[in-house]
Amino acid sequence: MSANSLPPRRPRVLIAGGGVAALEAALALYDLAADRLEVELCSPHSEFVYRPFAVGEPYGAASILRYDLGALAGQIGASFRLGGIFSVDTGAGQVTARDGEQIPYDYLMIASGARMLWAVPGAVTFWGVADEGGVAGVVRKLRAGILRDVVFTMPGGHSWGLPLYELALLGSTVLAKSGIEDARLTVVTPEDAPLELFGRAVAERMGHLLGERGIEVVTGVHPVEFEGGRLRIAPGEPIETEAVISLPRLEGRRCLCRRRCLRLPGQARGDRDPAGRHRRRGDRLGGRL
What's the start-to-end Cα distance of the chain, in Å? Predict the structure, then answer.
């Protein structure tokens, strides 16, 4: 067989990440160009974790679902590589894995997700998957009647507020089932209205639901620190409480690639290094991918 008769090489798409965005990108490519592309997922984690159920786990109301990334990738026509990416050489069209391996690509898609950061000193942070018993410990004390006053809060800026209200509503269910009537649950949020991101109708309905469950709501304030039984807020006077559960602050990972890199929505981009020079070869990725 002559070289001219060989089938043309299919463009290689490397997707850095193993979460929802990475899988959706691979699924879209499979749907649009399954026979014209070679797609590989690269992630330092071997499992895809379905996070929405995480809020129910501390309460015993749900279990987190986990799926093998290699098996999922295979179902949508992609291959899977276990490992993180250390740097990107956009000029050469290759990435360097954390184990030193050079991985070539024609198109690179960065879908590394957001970093979760500690937001309120002194509070118990709801990390979702890696809870390590923090929130579960508060729930046990609430169910046993040891705690009678708990605040649920989230930082301002970049944060996903839905779990805040799910945690508070599940807390009210625990109190009702335990027959505890004199406990107080409070939501403290920088939003002007609960779940305002979803629009006025949803915010009003959530406000009514929280009121029906006896959950107090303090809006328009930012949690600062929990210490000595007092949650400092800004603006306003401290709120006295026995425990505080906070959502983490979310921060997008920076990608310093400039060419042949397709960033998915939410992926931050830095075009210059601290000295103001554009980065081209040997670009490094901020955070672990």
Answer: 41
Gap between the Cα atoms of 25 and 73, Å rounded: 11
Do 91 and 125 fall into the same domain?
A: no
- For residue 158, what are the domain limits? 116-249
Instruction: Give the pTM.
Output: 0.79
- Placement of tokens 């898609």 in the chain: 109
Contact assessment for residue 251 and residue 237, using Cβ atoms and an 8 Å cutoff: no
Contacts 24+ apart (CB under 8 A), 25-31: 25/109, 25/111, 25/264, 26/73, 26/76, 26/77, 26/78, 27/76, 29/78, 30/76, 30/77, 30/78
| 180 shares its domain with 129 | yes
- In this prediction, residues 246-267 reach a mean pLDDT of 63
Average pLDDT of span 98-104: 92
What pLDDT score does 281 carry? 35
Strand runs (DSSP E) across 139-267, as ranges?
Answer: 149-153, 184-189, 215-219, 222-227, 230-234, 239-240, 243-246, 249-252, 254-255, 261-263
Q: Is the pLDDT of residue 75 over 70?
A: yes
CA angle 13, 158, 133 (to 5 degrees): 90
Is residue 289 a part of any domain in this protein?
no
